[in-house]
Amino acid sequence: MHTPLLDIAPTDLVDIAVVALLLWGLVVWTRRARMALLGLAFLGVFYHLIAQQFKLQLTTWIFQGFFAALVVVVVVVFQDDLRRLFEQIATFSLRRKAPRPDPSSLGTLTRGLYQLAAKRRGALVVLPGREPIERHFLQHGVPLDAEISEELLDSLFDPGSAGHDGALVMQNNRIKEFGVHLPLSENRDELRGGGTRHAAALGLAERSDALCLVVSEERGTIGIATRGQLEILDNPDAGKLANRIRSYLQHTGTRVNARRERRRWGRRLVEGLLSFALALGAWLIFVPGATAEEAVLQVPVAVENMPEGYALKDVNPPEVEIAVAGPRRAMFLASNADFEVVIDANLVRLGRRTFEVSAQSVRHATGLEIKSIKPDKVKLTVQQARGRAR
Q: What is the spatial distance between Cα 123 and Cα 274, in angstroms, rounded to a whole number?
């Protein structure tokens, strides 16, 4: 009885691909908020498996109110992630390009950072990408709008400067502001012992597509934070640092940590396959699976409640033909074994031998509708304990 579900046209492939892309974005987003989502999932499991099963009325009532307001809860808990998701959609749809620094200003920046690293003087510089970053600032700094120079960098990150502990933000090849306070990352594994500046650089890189350059005053190293990852460069000179920054901004830079890159692509592959599988499953359920179909089954007749003192000798006919209708997904999951025609033989003691077969006589739990039954009557041949067959 199983009806084939998989009949995919080219337009269906496009439909599945679009949904898979949307689901992939959802999977990536849930990876960022997995702990909060796991908490909501735990509450859902607790509600269904414990509160409802054991009929905890007060608990069930509270959970019903909570889940009724779940949309509001999700918006409150994930407001930053949702806002970033919509901003990414907007920047993608508007084709906003990431700013590309002028070669001369980039050279000046890298030489200045190299000099600060040689002096063991801490610094943090932010190069914005496509996404707006102002909303992530914990505290705005001092507006400057000045042309970058090595001397200005040295002055702004001098320990005696009021904004030396904050970040410097560049925009359109100029210093927009300095002394900006950024959110701190809590990813200790990625920080690997880095200080507050590294935590601030990684914190912004986790929340946006900005590129953050950080100079460690303790070790005299230069780090690059982007896409939620922090890389510490091994003794770079100004020219190599400029090339690395340029390659990062162009999204074509190679990573030093090849193992991390393989893990990242492996994770993306798993997420992509999972998204495609979910999209295909949803398509099968809601598109062809929702198409109404009909089928004809041969269902055996079973007899119940035979009165005491009577024995069943024969059922004529032993099977009936049942026409069923319903969604293709239900038809696909159902089989002949899921149906049974049951005759209540209790009236045999009153002389009844012919019984009508109706939809109420068919036992099944498939969600399919009984359209017709042929024949609509069956005859029983029974024998009394002290008598001949009748």
A: 41
